């Protein structure tokens, strides 16, 4: 029996990178995968954006592990959209056990290059997007009787990182968000952790 047999995981930013890696690994451990990605132009970033082909490739890789994947193009800033995909996944697979709030953007800029737009976009995706993700999923974990929520912060969420005031601000905010959710969701046997990858 695999560690995550009969478990269902919801992952944001699942088209590539760490989100895809989480999807493939959780699938290998036995979980069915529900996931979303913007899979389109990201605001202001200096790197290529993920595509619908990337999202398809994640689906293919998950299915190659013998799991099912319910993946959709959706923006974490759209709470109703996130709720809709989560509800589709729950209806299809029968519940939800694991949440990985991973989607995020990074726009390297010196403090005096940060604009109202780049500051707002970073906070909207990296902070409000995570709040949307937990808000849309936690009721389903409560229904299930417990679960695990993993919030992807960053090294920039525990230490300083220059040339990204908005990003560092957003990733520190996630530490507080994880603690605050943990304080209220613990009574439902839901663990909430932030993780802090380095570059
Ligand atoms: N790469 C690093 O060095 C590093 C270090 C520490 C933390 N992180 C964090 O890890 C997470 C994943 O990063 P990654 O390196 O895999 O990046 P990535 O750009 O390869 O993947 C992020 C995915 O999130 C998606 N995404 C972005 N905004 C979205 C939105 N509004 N709605 C839905 N999907 C959206 C993107 O389309 C992309 O597929 C991010 O939160 C990032 O801040 C990354």
Briefly summarize what is shown:
By secondary structure, the chain is of the alpha/beta class. The chain is built from five helices and six strands. The model has no long low-confidence stretch (mean pLDDT 98).
Explained architecture:
- With 199 residues, the protein is of the alpha/beta class.
- It has a single domain (8-195), classed as Rossmann fold (3-Layer(aba) Sandwich), CATH 3.40.50.720.
- The chain is built from 5 helices and 6 strands.
- It has helices at 17-28, 52-64, 79-93, 116-144, 165-185, and strands at residues 8-12, 32-37, 69-73, 98-101, 147-152, 190-195.
- Strands 3-2-1-4-5-6 form a 6-stranded parallel beta sheet, sandwiched between helices.
- α1 (17-28) packs parallel to α2, α3 (79-93) runs parallel beside α4 and α4 (116-144) runs parallel beside α5 (165-185).
- The longest helix is centred in the middle third of the chain and has 29 residues, at 116-144.
- The relative contact order is 0.15.
- The mean pLDDT is 98.
- Bound molecules: nicotinamide-adenine-dinucleotide (NAD).
- Nicotinamide-adenine-dinucleotide (NAD) is lined by residues 12-13, 15-19, 36-39, 42, 49-50, 75-77, 102-106, 125, 129, 152, 154, 197, 199.
């Amino acid at each position: 029996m695999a560690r995550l047999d009969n478990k269902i995981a919801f992952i944001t930013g699942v088209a590539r990178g760490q989100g895809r890696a989480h999807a493939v690994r959780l699938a290998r451990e036995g979980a069915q995968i529900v996931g979303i990605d913007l899979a389109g132009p990201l605001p202001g970033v200096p790197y290529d954006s993920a595509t619908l082909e990337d999202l398809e490739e994640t689906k293919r890789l998950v299915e190659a592990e013998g799991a099912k994947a319910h993946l959709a193009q959706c923006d974490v800033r759209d709470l109703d959209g996130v709720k809709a995909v989560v509800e589709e996944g729950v209806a299809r697979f029968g519940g939800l056990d694991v949440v990985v709030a991973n989607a995020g953007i990074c726009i390297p800029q010196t403090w005096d290059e940060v604009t109202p737009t780049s500051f707002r976009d970073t906070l909207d995706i990296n902070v409000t997007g995570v709040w949307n993700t937990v808000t849309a999923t936690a009721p389903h974990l409560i229904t299930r009787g417990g679960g695990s929520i993993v919030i992807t912060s960053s090294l920039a969420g525990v230490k300083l990182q220059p040339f990204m005031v908005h990003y560092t601000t957003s990733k520190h905010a996630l530490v507080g968000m994880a603690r605050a959710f943990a304080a209220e969701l613990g009574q439902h046997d839901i663990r909430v952790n932030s993780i802090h990858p380095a570059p």
